Amino acid sequence: MNFKKLTSLALSTLLLSFNASFALAANFTDIPNDYWATKEINVLTEKGIISGYPDSTFKPDQPVSRAEFIKMLIKTLDKDEISVNIKNNFTDISNSFWGYNDILRAKKLELVVGYPDLTFKPFNSITKSEATSIVSKTVKEHDCPVPCSSMKQLNPCPKDSSLKQFQDNEKIASWAKKSFTKAVKHELYVNYPARELLTPNKQMTRAETSVLLYKLLQKPQIVMTSYQGPALQQATVQKNTALIEHLPSTPFSGSVNQVEINGLNARIFAENVVPVRFEGGFESKKAKKGEFVNLVFTQNLTTEEGTTVIPAGSKFVSEIVSLKRGKPFHINAEMALNLQNLVTPSGKAYPLTATIQNNELLDPAFGKCNLKRLGMITGSVAVVGSLLGVTIGAFCDEVGDGAALGSIIGGGTGLALGLVAPGCGISISEDQDVYVKINSDLEIELK
């Protein structure tokens, strides 16, 4: 083995070791728990598909190069072990380039063809149109072996694939329209935060790439067999044997109550509503902005079919992101929470996005507390006024008239003071049900 090959091998080994070490460190300093792509980034990092940087950052908004995207896609498909036995026709790719093998694997799988001038342009940032075109080649035209009318179908039929629902559909190049139509049909696209736009000519970021490839991992059954490596094939078998179970209804439940049970894992679909309670109750007068509170499952969350999805003692760890005290004229206190993680009794944490449905608990309207406070102030001042009237009346031998006048004056004064009194604080007992809606699919391990 000559020095050049030995050096190349050493660099490759070093690169792999760096990737492995980065994959184990998913606590990126620039990815907060409530970041829109946290879950997807963490999953791909754990699988070694994408990695962070030596300074513990992920750089989610940094563009992805064409070579980087191909490497990540080949890894996602579990095709990174197939042999490279085709001729390299790309004039700007040599066998010493770090992405050489994966680019040729993608060429062998007919996922890429390069440019008319026989270049691949590996360092160019990949656009959403280019990424969508490549990914769409791996998936089936449809995935509806049974009628779409089945509401409990495990793999529901793709939604309307019309591109007209997106305001910028006319910006899609003619060569990419078929790819986008197919991708939209299978929901293999990323358009956060503007849901009404596809932004086809935008450069794909690292966060967007993570979300796109995560979606592909979650739907292995739509990937054509020829593009499935061993791991993806096994995932397809598991996906096709998964069970759909149903959570009990709550006063705030909507049309979604499904949970996918897949071996020792469960996926609580978005829009599900689950009941929890404040651990130890909650008093706003004892709380501060920035503090954390726990919403606890006081009993097992079990499906109607009998599977315990979330064990009792699990908690939604939540941060108080705003807290306003009561103000004069009975303006009550109000609070906002950011639900960040589900933490099970074993200590396992799962990032989530969720919102409280019975929000009147955190932003109470004028109610019993205010009426009680108004009555107490009015009554107390009226009594004082009456006593004062009796005293004054005694000096004038008009005790009755003095008491009556004192009651009128005291009652009026009390009412005025009661009306301008501060509003009530937030008081939630530990036996008060709080209903939380899961805003994005929550995947957890079953015990």
Features:
alpha+beta; Lipocalin; disordered N terminus; 7-stranded antiparallel β-sheet; 10 helices; 4-stranded antiparallel β-sheet; single chain; 3 domains; elongated; 447 residues
Secondary-structure map:
Layout (H helix, E strand, L loop, with lengths): L2 H22 L13 H9 L19 H11 L23 H9 L19 H9 L37 H12 L20 H13 L11 H11 L2 E4 L11 E5 L2 E4 L4 E6 L3 E2 L8 E5 L4 E2 L5 E3 L4 E10 L9 E10 L5 E3 L2 E3 L11 H28 L3 H21 L7 E2 L5 E5 L3 E4 L2
Helix pairs in contact: 2-7, 3-4, 3-7, 5-6, 9-10
What structural class do the secondary elements suggest? Answer: alpha+beta
Number of helices: 10
The main pleated sheet reads as: 7 strands, antiparallel
Order of helices and strands: HHHHHHHHEEEEEEEEEEEEHHEEE
How many strand segments? 15
Q: Beta fraction of the residues? A: 15-25%
Overall pLDDT confidence:
81
Estimate nothing, just give the exact number of structural domains.
3
Helix content: 25-40%
- Tell me the strand order in the biggest sheet: 11-10-9-6-4-14-12
> What low-confidence regions span 5 or more consecutive residues with pLDDT below 50?
1-25, 143-156
* Backbone shape: elongated
